[in-house]
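SUBJECT: A protein chain and its fold
Encoding: whole-number codes for local backbone shapes
RECORD BEGINS BELOW THIS LINE
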Amino acid sequence: MIKKSITVTEQQEEWIQAQLASGHYASDSEIVREALREKQLRSAEVERIRAALIQAEERGFSELGKEDIRRSVQDEMRANGDV
């Protein structure tokens, strides 16, 4: 593991302390690592949706609407264990 020093706002610190008090997390680091994992998953999802939309646009048509494409990508990511 690599040790990092970060700065958070007062509001973020209050939220972190509330999470620790609730017993959901054992440390600040655990909270930050989970937040980073969630951001990474969300970014991967957005990129896959973007690629699917571009591919549909390049073909000139799609039977799927944008929400259908989004759901399809999310289902694929769940099936692959990416989410």
Q: What stands out?
A: The chain is about 70% helix and 0% strand. Helices lie at 10-22, 28-59, 66-79.
